Amino acid sequence: MRTAIVPIRSFMGMTRLESVLDPEQRRSLSIGLAGRSVDAAIDAGLETLVLTGDTEVAAWASERCAVAVDDGGGLSIAVTNAVNRHAQPEWLVLHADLPCIDGDHIRRFSTLATECGAAIAPSLDGGTNVIAGAGPFDFTYGPGSFHANLAGMPHARISAHWALSLEVDTPSHYAAVVGLGLVPRLTP
Question: Per residue, what are the HEC states of the chain?
């Protein structure tokens, strides 16, 4: 069975959106987005781990029937540790800022990864929004992470589905999501 890992540092993040949202709006948006990602993984039938060191996020994850784990370090190290310690043999890492994701998207992506051995979905700006494989893997996150992670698994099938690629990370991303009328669905 594939294990999904959703990294969520805290609900007080999304600092790149400070110019368009106040702290409470960013917190509300963060909770709504995280809920979509965690619910999508659970709806897809995956064991779901929320990777966090934040007690509020851990309690929230438990309420959603997900298991909270803390593997320390920055994002790349924490996800690598979580996959290698808790999600063997098959894993899927799904970020918590995807406004259009649902269980069907995750189910299809997981199937693609099973059929091809691995799958990766880039963000619109060259990051990595969703990645799935089997066995140990050393993740690289940050600018250009899609190409760095793809280099680590060159056999991976690339999925550029819009629901996997659209994220809310910058003011322009947020404007696109507002333009699509998605914000009311994302706030608790």
Answer: CCEEEEECCCCCCCHHHCCCCCHHHHHHHHHHHHHHHHHHHHHCCCEEEEECCCHHHHHHHHHCCCEEECCCCCHHHHHHHHHHHHCCCEEEEECCCCCCCCHHHHHHHHHHHHHHCCEEEECCCCCEEEEEEECCCCCCCCCCHHHHHHHHCCCCEECCCHHHHCCCCCHHHHHHHHHCCCHHHHCC
Residue 62 sits at φ, ψ, to 5 deg, of -60, -40
Per residue in 147-161, pLDDT (tens digit) is 999 999 999 999 999
pTM value? 0.94
Q: How many structural domains compose the chain?
A: 1
- For residue 9, give the CATH number of its domain: 3.90.550.10
Cross-strand bridge partners of residue 107: none
Task: Residue 36: give the domain boundaries.
Answer: 3-186
